[in-house]
């Protein structure tokens, strides 16, 4: 059942430069302290003060594809390298908070599902049921080569791999231990009920796992499942498995189309429309007046490392736009299948939007590398006073978006500002929660601790008895 | 260089029943709360008050071998099932302590070395250099079958596997990032120095790992390395790789022989005698008088689940002594190669020691399953007043033991008692430290943050430049 208000999540990564490249160079940017627990605990406390539902850790387990022929730019920009493990800092965050959900990205490539399921169950106990898992397949060639593969599997095969991976974890989380298996009965000297703890004997294409699961049922058993793929295979995977999908739509109308399409797929799998919630990624430029907001936006644009933005896009889509001057015309760089749609997107935007022009330039000029960087930096940006931001968020809510994954310019600054200035206005309008609902993170979002009976994980309840 | 005092470590596991089986049934036993972070943080604070060097987490990633034909006994006794992941609770412990080292057991079977190295480096940053790794190969068939193997590799092959595994991690920890690679230079906009961050391109029998390592050099780079094998292959592995070895010798003289043998192997590899420290596992029964101590020992013996002790031994050595009455003669159970040495050990002890006899029994009687359980429970036990315990620990120290891994009967009770009553006496005698040395755990134990140049990990410094 959808709540009237939006959910909020902080979109972060255990690194210096996650989405908005170059901002770490600002003197007030604390994200360079990512190695320290204090940095993350302090942020978590800010988020909990603002009644955020999640701190959401993105992750990569390898370098992005070469930019200008190497990974030099990524290193210089701190662009997701270093990339620290988010899962091992979660318990420090949990110990210092009470209600904030902690979402961890983990790829099927990096951890064996038996080990991963154990880690997640341990954390779900340790957090009293506040763990979420963002399921990813990893699209980085270097990541594959870090784990002994020659390279990436083909795209749809990666989702078949993920299908088996989650299947193993569902068996462990939902089927291996029946309710009431952990007794801890001192008087009878019975710690567990043998009849209620089962091996799973999974045999599949990639995995053979005997079991039993090594951890007793945690508050949520299966953690809240996030997913982020927007391809057809990605939408189908989300429709089958995800309870929350992370999207980055250019605007509410496009989000509405994507959400409607995915919800249809959800229903086609036998689940209900609202079994999947959608979180839109947005970053905010907040002013006490519209003028101040516009001024701060100019400052933000100037602080962004445009070359870094292009590098991130290059690495993510697997097309090397690097090694060129920022003023080089994009059309000259390449006209391959991979680049064409991107070049056309930038050229259209340059031709259409005065915002992408610089003083003295004509509307018909050729799009440059700089334009690409600017567009990337302005992607999913919301600018204004708290009141006008609330208006804009209402439009996202009306389009069917359930939550906002708040991208940062600085940590903790972006979140402090959002919590202090925007959240109170949203709360006054009923667009943000004033208090947490009780219980586990799934109870807060969906009303029950356990994943519902329409989800494929539920088929394994009692399956091994 | 050896310190005059002993080091102290708490030998625990993220489970209910670790070594002394059955004690969890006592009303004052808190170890049933292992799922909770508060339980572990509270214990860590006790240990730090007592200036312990480590909290040492043992671990298994599967069931012990069948006992009486199944894993029923293990479940009923809470005997290392559940077995929660220790690595994900470390940061909560670290955040609430300042000096305690955190040693985590992880098997080569459970985690890919690229993922593991990243996890450890992240934790070493998060703890300001307080992480140790207990390297294990896993000797449990069920663990192998949880990770897709048909069964265990042969014993010596497991150590060859471990050799390659640690080699990959050394390359990542020591060679991938040169000193000074992380700049975070805001003025120049240079986050990292590309010339100092290298791929490792490891190609071996089991692993291919491209790199670079994803985490910048942590305070210790390579964590403190623990190892526990006592076989010839195990001693040789420890001699090459370990900085601390966990041993369980029946007494100081046997410890002296083992330590001397292993130190000779250490020197043979080009390292120095004192590059490896030895931690003896012991549990303590503490009384304000000798009489009180003896009385508490009888209570302890009565609280121990003897069948559980036999089950643990059975599972660990891979011989099923289960399914028999406690009064069944051991000699009737089996006389296979696996059981013979154990049966002889118990029979000798029964014939020799009045302590293993029960009222009305003759010295020449046949040893029973009960005797085996009692002997296991009394293994490595130290009984007495704080002063006599200090005398006994002095003998262990004189035999060359560097530290004590303190086994518990109850958590936190056993450690509270030891810290309040024994540690002050040891401190007065110079046998325990009064204050922590500054810096990382390796700096506290060995005087330097980084592993020394005689260790095989050091060969990779600058190796990929």
Automatic annotation (TrEMBL), chains A, B:
UniProt keyword list: Flavoprotein, FMN, Monooxygenase, Oxidoreductase
All copies of the Luciferase-like domain together span 26-402
Q: Which residues bind FMN?
A: 59, 105, 155, 159, 230-231
Q: What is any Pfam family matched here?
A: Bac_luciferase
Q: Report the SUPFAM superfamilies cross-referenced here.
A: Bacterial luciferase-like
Record InterPro entries: Diverse_substr_monoxygenases (IPR051260), Luciferase-like_dom (IPR011251), Luciferase-like_sf (IPR036661), NTA_MOA (IPR016215)
Tell me which domain of life the UniProt entry assigns to the organism this sequence originates from: Bacteria
- Asked if the keyword Oxidoreductase belongs to this entry, the reply reads yes
GO MF terms, alphabetically ordered: monooxygenase activity; oxidoreductase activity, acting on paired donors, with incorporation or reduction of molecular oxygen
Q: Which family does it belong to?
A: Belongs to the NtaA/SnaA/DszA monooxygenase family.
Please state what the protein is called. Oxidoreductase
Query: What organism is this sequence from?
Result: Mycolicibacterium diernhoferi
């Amino acid at each position: 059942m959808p709540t009237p208000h939006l959910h909020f999540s902080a979109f972060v990564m255990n690194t210096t430069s996650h989405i908005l490249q170059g901002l770490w160079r600002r003197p007030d940017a604390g994200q360079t302290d990512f190695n320290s627990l204090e940095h993350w605990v302090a942020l978590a406390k800010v988020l909990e003060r603002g009644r955020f539902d999640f701190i959401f850790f993105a992750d990569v387990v390898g370098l992005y594809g070469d930019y200008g022929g190497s990974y030099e730019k990524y290193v210089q920009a701190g662009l997701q390298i270093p990339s620290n493990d988010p899962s091992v800092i979660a318990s420090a965050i949990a110990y210092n908070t009470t209600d904030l959900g902690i979402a961890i990205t983990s790829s099927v490539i990096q951890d064996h599902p038996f080990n991963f399921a154990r880690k997640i169950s341990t954390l779900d106990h340790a957090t009293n049921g506040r763990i979420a898992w963002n399921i990813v397949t990893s699209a980085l060639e270097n990541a594959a080569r870090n784990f002994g593969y020659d390279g990436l599997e083909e795209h749809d095969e990666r989702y078949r791999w993920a299908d088996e991976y989650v299947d193993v974890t569902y068996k462990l989380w939902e089927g291996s231990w029946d309710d009431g298996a952990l007794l801890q009965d001192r008087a009878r000297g019975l710690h567990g009920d043998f009849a209620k703890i089962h091996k799973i004997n999974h045999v599949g294409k990639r995995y053979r796992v005997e079991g039993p699961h090594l951890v007793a049922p945690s508050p949520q058993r299966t953690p809240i499942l996030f997913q982020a793929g927007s391809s057809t295979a990605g939408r189908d995977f989300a429709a089958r498995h995800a309870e929350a999908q992370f999207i980055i739509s250019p605007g509410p109308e496009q989000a509405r189309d994507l959400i409607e399409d995915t919800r249809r797929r959800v229903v086609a799998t036998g689940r209900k429309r609202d079994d999947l919630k959608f979180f839109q990624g947005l970053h905010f430029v907040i002013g006490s007046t519209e003028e101040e907001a516009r001024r701060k936006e100019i400052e933000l644009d100037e602080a962004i490392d445009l070359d870094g933005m292009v590098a991130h896009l290059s690495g993510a889509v697997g097309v090397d736009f690097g090694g060129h001057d920022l003023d080089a015309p994009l059309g000259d760089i390449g006209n391959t299948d991979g680049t064409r749609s991107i070049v056309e997107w930038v050229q259209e935007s340059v031709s259409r939007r005065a915002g992408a022009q610089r003083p003295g330039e004509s509307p018909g000029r050729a799009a440059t590398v700089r334009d690409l960087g600017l567009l990337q930096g302005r992607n999913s940006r919301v600018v204004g006073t708290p009141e006008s931001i609330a208006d804009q968020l209402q439009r996202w809510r009306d389009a069917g978006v359930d939550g906002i994954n708040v991208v940062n310019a600085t940590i903790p600054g972006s979140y402090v500002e959002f919590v202090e200035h925007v959240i109170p206005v949203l709360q006054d309008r009923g667009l943000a929660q004033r208090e947490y609902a009780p219980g586990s993170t799934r109870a807060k979002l969906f009303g029950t601790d356990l994943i519902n009976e329409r989800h494929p994980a539920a088929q394994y309840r009692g399956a091994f008895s």
